[in-house]
Amino acid sequence: MNLLIMGLPGAGKGTQAAKIVEKFGIAHISTGDMFRAAIANQTELGLLAKSYMDKGDLVPDEVTNGIVKERLGQADVKEKGFLLDGYPRTLEQAQVLDTILKELDLKLDAVINIEIESSKLVERLSGRIINRKTGETYHKVFNPPADYKEEDYYQREDDKPEAVKRRLEVNIAQGQPIIAYYRQQNLVHDIQGDQEIDNVFKDVSQTISGLK
Predict the structure, then answer these.
(1) Is 101 annotated as a binding residue?
(2) Contact present, 47 and 40 (Cβ < 8 Å)
(3) Between the N and C ends of the chain, which has fewer C-beta atoms within 10 Å?
(4) According to CATH, what is the number of the domain 2-117+169-210?
């Protein structure tokens, strides 16, 4: 079973990815893990990626694509299948991924797309507050402090509603062409993410089990 999981920040993609890997026993391939492993193993591409990261530069697509190909070529992927998480991030990367899979004699079985209205994601992501004295993190809606006094808490700039909206707009603009590309291939399965975590996973599980 070879899967790709997609979803906007705050949609619960990471939580669902962990549950999928645990239940179905497939290899979890996340961008961060791939880069860390390639650097730790001092592969040629890993060292090349590190040279860009050390300078604070973005790693070029050709290096990222090469690291993805390296990872997808490993034995556990052939044996168990994979769940790609955080890649592709652009339409060009999605097209390259098709070529990589073909060269490795693999195919993508489905794209799991966790959907939530962006207005609800703003509430989720912009509710984080931090205690000025203790540094403890709370959420205004989902985990409010018992003794909440506005002057005792602050928000990071990244967590303020305006910043969250901008971040979501960028992610939507980036993700739409990728989703459209996979819809043309009839690979996309939309999952309603605005429900309890276990209910989301129930829908995800049913979708994946139905692919077999």
Answers:
(1) no
(2) no
(3) C
(4) 3.40.50.300
What mean pLDDT do residues 113-136 have?
92
Q: Which residues are catalytic?
A: 13, 89, 128, 156, 167
Q: Is 156 annotated as a binding residue?
A: yes
The C-alpha atoms of residue 198 and residue 201 are separated, in whole angstroms, by 5
pTM: 0.85
Q: Which two tokens stand for residue 142?
A: 């989902």
For residue 83, say whether it is annotated as part of any ligand binding site: no
User: Which pLDDT belongs to residue 34?
Assistant: 83
Angle of helix 61-72 versus helix 44-54 axis, rounded to 10: 140
Residues 154, 159: Cα–Cα separation, whole Å: 10
**Sign of torsion over alpha carbons 175, 181, 184, 187:** negative
Mean pLDDT of 151-167: 91
The residue whose two tokens read 């694509």 is 65
Q: Angle CA(103)–CA(14)–CA(161) in degrees, nearest 5?
A: 120
pLDDT of residue 212: 65
b/e string for 108-134 if b means 16 or more Cβ within 10 A?
bebbbbbebebeebbbbbbbbbeeeee
